[in-house]
Amino acid sequence: MNLRSLTIDAARSAVAEGKTSATELAESYFAKIESDDPKIGAYLMLSKQRALAKASEIDTLVNKGEKLPPLAGVPVGIKDVLITKGVRTTAGSKILANYIPPYDCTAVARLESAGAVVLGKLNCDEFAMGSSNENSAYKPVHNPRDLSRVPGGSSGGSAAAVAADMAVATLGSDTGGSIRQPASFCGVIGLKPTYGRVSRYGLIAFASSLDNIGPFAKTAKDTAIMLRTIAGRDPMDSTSAELPVPDYVAELEKPVKGMKIGVAKEYFGEGLEPETRAAIEAAIQKLAKLGCEIVEVSLPHTKYAIPAYYLVATAEASSNLARFDGVRYGHRANSVRSLSDMYRRSRDEGFGAEVKRRIMLGTYALSAGYYDAYYLKAQRVRTLLTNDFIEAFKKVDAIVGPTCPTPAFKLGEKVDDPLAMYLADIYTVTANLAGIPGISIPVGNSKENLPIGMQIFGKHFDEATILRVAHAYETAA
Amino acid sequence: MKVTEKDVTYVADLANLELTEQERTRMVRDLNSILGHVDSLNELDTANVPPMAQVSDRFGLDDSKQGSDRFAYASRDDVREGLRKSLPHDVALANAPDSDGTFFKVPKVIEK
Q: Residue A71: inside a domain, yes or no?
């Protein structure tokens, strides 16, 4: 079976029509991972037993001629910040090196209930903190397009696995761009849903008001199928919205002619590499040819997004990561003198440099005397950034721009300069602060053959529109 | 320099981190670099702008409802759905670095 262009529907049909069995398909993916992943590093752990049990269940349904679920036999990979019952989950951190979760993340459970076969857990930056996957405590991920470059982060393994045909689709998480940026760097599609669209139950928390779970896939249709499967109210997450989930797949075919597409000048300023700019401008022209009306909009507070984001995100992280204390789970330091010594040394030994940096920044921003000046100030600016989008969306149906200012950079290029790494998130953090959905789709390659991604933002809970634009772009001649 | 070595020691203490000498020096440098960039937020007058802590208290709600009724869906109805069972003891303790089968064990808290 050729895994190169295998989509969800093609995989499901092949299983349903008996061209392959779910077990054979899973085995082909495991073989592909064993041969190719040593040079890429996308997987941290394979869940063969669980995958083959699920595949066998699907094969039994096929043999009995029973109705197959929508993702029957489709091999998927899961970012290692989403917990999986009985399958080691590390969040890319040494502090959880031996953690075996007692329950399943809702999004993973929903994929499996729909028939998907979970191949394994995907590499990521430690606790999803990073933009290059170099903060994984286990190993870096290499960009399948150019092994000397980063795949992006933090969901680098999730993007690389799809790009290198080591899964049909994957799940990642996005707190400041961690799905969209690696999708852009690896030349695949990545969707960050609206905050509240997908339950966060079972997602190891980084910044709870910004975290989202979302899919990576090769086509807009596969992305729509994945979202339809994982979206919707979950009583286990009080912030998951009680809103009906549209049939995103059916919505794809609606015309884009006459749709108003916004272009924000703030996303085309200083720092945007000329080649990336040219690719995005060409993509916008293509949307215009499809009958979209291109409208200039303004998001005037964009330049304040990075500082606001890194205060809010680190403040929430410092609180969320307080749970790693060596008592109930995770690493505990040896031969400690006292309880407080145990907390400190366990955390010191278990966390990597970037995680410590963010805990420190967040704790500082929340500490007495600085709370108003930093944390509260950032929350007020968050309101302004959100209002920018609300105003812009009064005039347009979607907003497009670059996902990242440059294509994938080299491994090691930015590791010693955390601020430079943070600044590269300029176009993605805004959607997390405002809570709106965003999707990155491949729109071309640089001279060095590196993928360039275009980002499409939508109104709150209007993933259907941005998926429709993505689909129209992808299927246009 | 906004953040001094003394600040780093104080904040590390609040965050239950120890940090090596080398890590502290690096942290002073990194925090100052990041906070220097963060200062640009002071260009904005936000005196009359409300802070935003969450997305879900503003979007995705039924606007026809008022006050706490808008969030009624988020509270669990124990009578209808029943109380969820806790994890069994052995499962809850399975990941503990140290336990006696009933409790998590930690080093002595009170010194004699």
A: yes
User: Considering CB atoms only, which of A307, A342, A356 is closest to B106?
Assistant: A342
| A307 interaction partners in chain B (CB closer than 8 Å) | 37-41
Are B16 and A340 inside 8 Å of each other by CB? yes
In a 10 Å sphere around its CB, with 0-12 CB exposed, 13-18 middle and 19+ buried, how is residue B78 labelled? exposed
Q: Indicate if the alpha-carbon torsion angle A135, A366, A192, A279 is positive or negative.
A: negative
CB contact under 8 A, B16 and A304: no
Which of A54, A79, A192, A221 is an active site residue? A79
Q: How many domains does chain A have?
A: 1
pLDDT in tens, A194-217: 999 999 999 999 999 999 999 999
Range of the domain at A218: 8-252
Judged by a CB distance cut-off of 8 A, whether residue B79 touches chain A is no
Provide the β-strand partners of residue A400.
A263, A456
A158 among known catalytic residues: no
Mutate to test the interface with B, among A318, A331, A364, A377 (most CBs of B within 10 A): A364
Q: Is residue A349 part of a domain?
A: no
CA neighbor of A229 nearest in space, from A289, A170, A277: A170
Average pLDDT estimate for A103-125: 98
Q: How far is CA A122 from the centre of its chain?
A: 11
The span from the CA of B106 to the CA of A332, in Å, is 10
Would you say residue A329 lies in a domain? no
Asked if B94 reaches chain A (Cβ–Cβ under 8 Å), the answer is yes
In chain B, where does DSSP find H-type helix? Answer: 5-14, 21-38, 78-81, 89-93
Pairing status of strand A169-174 against strand A75-79 = parallel
Supply B87's token pair.
């994890």
User: A9: which 2 tokens?
Assistant: 């529907």
Judge whether A196 is closer than 8 Å to chain B, CB to CB.
yes
Using CB atoms, pick whichever of A103, A337, A339 lies closest to residue B106. Answer: A339
Residues of A in contact with B81 (CB under 8 A): 235
Contacts of A446 (CB under 8 A, 6+ apart): A275, A276, A279, A407, A452
pLDDT of B1 higher than 70: no
Q: Rounded to a whole number, what is the largest CA-CA distance in chain B? A: 62
C-alpha of A17 from chain center: 32
Q: Which of A155, A178, A184, A440 is catalytic?
A: A178
Query: What CATH number corresponds to the domain at position A137?
Result: 3.90.1300.10
Has residue A273 been placed in a domain?
no
Mutate to test the interface with B, among A361, A385, A389 (most CBs of B within 10 A): A361
Is B111 in the A-facing interface, judged by CB distances under 8 Å? yes
Residues with Cβ < 8 Å from A220, sequence gap 6 or more? A189, A252, A441, A467, A470, A471, A474
| pLDDT tier at B69, thresholds 50, 70, 90 | confident
Please check whether residue A158 touches B, CB under 8 A: no
CA atoms within 13 A on the CB side of A391: 13
| Model confidence at B81: pLDDT above 60 | no
